[in-house]
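Record pair follows.
FIRST:
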Amino acid sequence: MLSARPRHRIRIAILDDHPIIGLGMASFLHHQADFEVVQTETSAIRFLEMLKETPCDVAIVDFYLPRQPWDGVDFIKRLRRQHPDLIVITFSGGKVADTEYAAYKAGANGYVPKGERLLCVADVIRKSISAPRSFYTCSQGELHDRRPPRPDDRLTAAEVEILRNIALGLSVTQISARLVRSKKTISTHKRRAMKKLALADDLALALYLKEKFEQSTKV
C-alpha cells in the first residue's frame, strides 16, 4: 500500500540508449518502497534537460552511449559539473576492467555490471545515498566499498616500457631501434595497452600519458 511507503522516497532518473533495458530497470526499481523513478530516457540531451527541470537524487547512466553526443567519462563529468550533489551510478555491459576505474575517476558514486542482478543496483543506490563519498561496486551479487584498481596494473612490463618511451616523445620507429625489437612488435604492444586503458586513439593516449607524467612528477 502507498501509505506504507517512506515519506521521502529516493528520486531516480535512468539513461540507457536501449529502451528495453531502461524500462526493465525502471519497472524493478518502481516496486521498491523507498524509490520513485521519475524518468527513463534514451537521449542524453533530453536526460540533461529533464534534470534541470526535475531535480533527482540519483542518476543511473549507461557508460557506453555510442549514438549520443556524450558518453562514458565525458558524460559522467558533465553530470558532476552540472549537478554536484547528484548521486551518479554507472552500469555497463562492457568489460569491468575497461570501465569501472574510468567511472570512478570521472566522479561516479557506484558501478554495476549489467550482468548483475537488479537487486544489486538497488543496494548500490541506497549505500551511495547514505555514504556519497564512498565508491560502491557489485561483483557476483556481493556489494563492495572499495576503490577500483588502476588500469595500469593490468599492463605487462613490455607494454609499460613502450608507453614510457612514447611519453618521452619517441616514435614507434625510434622505440624499435632503442629496444631492438621490430616495429610490428612495438605497435602490437602499444595497441594492446591502449585497449586495456580504454583509449580510443593517439590523442587519448597522449592525454593519458600527460596526466600520468604530471602525477609522477608530484610524487
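SECOND:
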Amino acid sequence: MAPPARVRPDACPGVFATHDAADGALARIRLPGGRVSAQQAEALAGCAEDLGDGSVHLTSRGNVQLRGLSRDTGELAARLTAAGLLPAPAHERVRNYLASPLSGLTGGLVDVRETVLELDRAVCARPWLAALPGRFLFALDDGRGDVSGEDADVCWRALDSSTGAVLLAGRDTGERVPLAGAVDALMRKAAWFLEVHGSAWRVRELDLPAGERLPSSPGVPIGVFTRDDGRTGVCGAPVLGQLAAADLRALGEIVVTPWRSVVVPLGTDAPGLVTDPAAPGLGISACIGRPGCAKSRADVRADARAIMPRVPAGVRMHFSGCARRCGRPHEPHVDMLAGSEGYQKGTA
C-alpha cells in the first residue's frame, strides 16, 4: 500500500499548537506511560480549574486533554513545565508512549516503568525525532499483551523475563532484543520510519510484509486488585472519560490507561471513578459532541448518559457526533453515529 498523498501536515494538538474547538482551545498533555505523580495531578487540576473547563479529559493513548482554554497558552505551558510535564517543548507532540499500566504493580513478565522513562529521555535527546508525526506511537508491553494490542507504530513486548519481540503496527518483526536493548531497538525503528514514511503518519500506512499478531489481552479490569507486594490498588473509569479537577486532586498519584480508565496504585479510595465492574453503561464512550464541537450533530454526551442505565456493563458502545468518530475505541463496539434524523446504529 502506497503512503496516502496528503497535502496538509499532521495537526495533532499539543500545548503550543492547540486545537481550536467551539468551546475554546484544546490542549493535549502527553504522559509517558500514563504516569502522573501526586504533584503533577495537583498541577493538572489547577490548570483545569483556573484556565479550562474544570475537568481533565482522558484520551485513548493514556494522555489527558484540557478544554475551554484561551488561545494564549503561555501560562499553561509555564505551569506544566514547572510540574515536569513539558520537559522538551520541541518534542511535546511526539512524546506518545504507551506502557502496561499495571507493570511493576501486579502481573507481567518484566517491569517497564523505568524503561518508559528511559525511552522518553532518548526521544527528547534526539532533535531529529521532533519531526515524527504527532500520531506516531511507541509502546512497551510487559508481556501481558495489553498495550501491544493497541497497534502502536513501534512496540517492544516481553516474551519472558529477559527477552522481548519488536513489533511494527502490532505485528511481529521477528526481531528479539533484551529489555536493556528495547529503547535502542525502538529508536532504530523510529529512525527508519522517518527515512521512508513520505506523507504517511503511521507505520500501518506503509507497504510492509504482513507479520504475525501475538495474542493480546483486554485492558486493565475495573475494580480492586491485589498488588504483588500484598498491598491493594484499584482501577476505575470516570464517566465518559471526564474527570473533575477536584477528583483528580483527591486521587493523587495515578496511571492513566489507554482505555480511559485510571489505576490508583495504592488504596481503594477513588473519587470520581466507577470501580464496580458490573456498573451499567461502563462500556459507553463518546466524543465531546455539542456544544464543544461545531461539527457535531448532537449533544452525544447527554444522549449517552441517558442510555447508560439500560446498557449492561459488558456492552462496548461509542457515540459520535459526526463521521470523524473522534475517540472511538480500537476494540469491536456498537457504533452510534448522530445524523440529521437521529442515530445510525452499526458495528465497528
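COMMENT: The chain is about 20% helix and 25% strand.
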